[in-house]
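Hello again, I could really use a second opinion on something today. I've been staring at a protein lately and its backbone has me curious. Please have a think about how the structure follows from the sequence. I owe you a coffee for this, so here goes:
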Amino acid sequence: MKILNLYSGIGGNRMLWGDEHDITAVELDIPIAHAYKRFFPMDRVIIGNAHDYLAEHYHEYDFIWSSPPCTTHSVINVANKISPYKDNKKQIENGGGMVPRYPDMSLYQEIIFLGSNFKGKWCVENTFAYYEPLIKPNVFANHWFWCNFLIPHIETDGRFHDSKIGDLIKRKGFDKFDLSGLDKRKVLRNCVEPEVGKHILDYVVNPIQVQKKLL
């Protein structure tokens, strides 16, 4: 199977996919892309704009996974909202705050594009947003998933944002890899849980067998 892994990060969703598939990963951040290649040397890694790559190459693949940047959609935009019209230096120094901003609509562009044009199976993943979703997602594993096939619910332990770096490294399967030179907390928290990535790909490859396992 030819798989396109967009906005790949260091490869949390890909961790348990194995090496039997022909996988292309697209990542814009150069150090992160190089780390992904170290972790998954069998994959083809492209350093570039995943949104543009999708539009040009979608027809070359059997399954497409996309995890567009979530920061402009996340609940942190309202939980830590600050005014752009006052001195915010102290608040930012004390832990942050977010000036109101437009959500990046490439998320919905990709959902609509894939749903209208791609003949294979696809999955777009993002965090819970601060607004009602414009297109209804599947909801599980503390994330939103849009796809053109049924994904059975999967339970996770829900410890995404509370874990220490060491716990994240072990739980997400990166304990055997060198993460030096990266913002460990950021790249690990941006990873989809590996068992969720495997659960979804298993259902793409063999949905009947996965259904039997869940019964």
